Structures are given as structure tokens and as C-alpha cells.
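Let's practice the habit of predicting before peeking. Look at the sequence and jot down your guess about where helices and strands might fall. Then scroll down.
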Amino acid sequence: MPPMRNSKFKMPKWMDCAWRRVACEKDTCPICGHINKDRKRHIDVGEDPDDIDMIFEDVGRTFKETLELIKKDAESKGFDITNIDDIKEPPRPEKFGLYRKLAEWHKELTKFLAIAEKSESMWLYTPEGQDLSWYKNILLAKVYRQLCNRWELDNGAEYGKEDFEYTKYVLDECFKILESAFSELIQIDSPQKSGLLVLLGGLQKIKAVVEKI
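Done guessing? Here is the structure:
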């Protein structure tokens, strides 16, 4: 029997710490608390908590634990949400035309940032420059997630509606932050100004398509 649905269920606020560049970092936060514990665990045994292998290990474990926390949070409020065991595997990212288009933009921005770093452009170290580096990756991951959500709903799945709404919110926030970062950086008199304008234009075209998912 499919789980009962209730559109009034909202993802807990602490879920934002899973994707925002600046998280709350509180030990009491289900996301940040795990991250803080993971870092201490690695340091205590002489491991580098920023090593890519350690990061992938921690992310995989935290993701599984987070899903369980969301389910428990929903159940405590009287909601029965996504049955993870019933989720069908959606198409791979490259099967979606929108994802391929965004991936090209992401590649161009990555190259642009690398060139700016090589030329020691100081704007890279501003909050806006850091936002470009961070949210380009979040945007790529969340657009794929939303395409998967849409694919699941179009294929008759009743689960995932909550995730669709939450991911829409995350995407709106990512676009808002990225557009603001580009707009601020374009005001700076730098050799990269024309490149920033081109990338902003590409982002806005992609945004118009993402909003129709």
C-alpha cells in the first residue's frame, strides 16, 4: 500500500545545512553535528578530515543517516513519507538534455574560475567569489535531483512530492545566490568582467528552463 500523503509536511529547517555554503555549525544540528563528529574522529586517529577519500566516506554515511532522520521527523508529526526501498532508479544524468546543458555551463564556469585563480584575481576570495565556486556544484547536483523527481512523478510514483517541493526551494535559493554573486562581481573593474556577463547570461537561460521542470 502506498504511503499516505499530506502536502502540509515540510522538510526540517536543518536540512539547509546539507547544501548551504555557510551552515549553522552547531553540534545540536543533525547535519553539522555529524560533520563536526566526523572531523574530530579523523583528527583523533591522525587522518586528514579534508582528504577527498575521507570526505566521500563521510558524505555517504551522513546521507543515509539524514534520510532516516527525515523519516523519523515526519513520522513524529504524523506523516508517512517516501519508502526508500520502493524508489526506482531514474535515468543517468547525461540522459537529460537540461543536465547536459547545465554541465556545459558548469564546465565553462569551472575553467573561468581556474583562469582567474591563475591570474591571482582577488575577487575569488570574496564571499561572492566563494559562492560561485560552491553553488555551481550544488546547482548541478540539485538540477539532476529535480529531474529525477519529475521523472519519478511522471512515471506514476506517489512518493517524492515533498522532495520535489524542497528541491524547488533549494534551486530557487541557488539561482538567487548565484545571480547576486555575478551581479556584485560584475561591478568590480576586472579583466574578467566580460566573462562574468556571459556566464550570468547563460545561467539565466538555464534558470528559465529549470523553472519549468
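How did you do? The chain has two domains: 13-81, 89-210.
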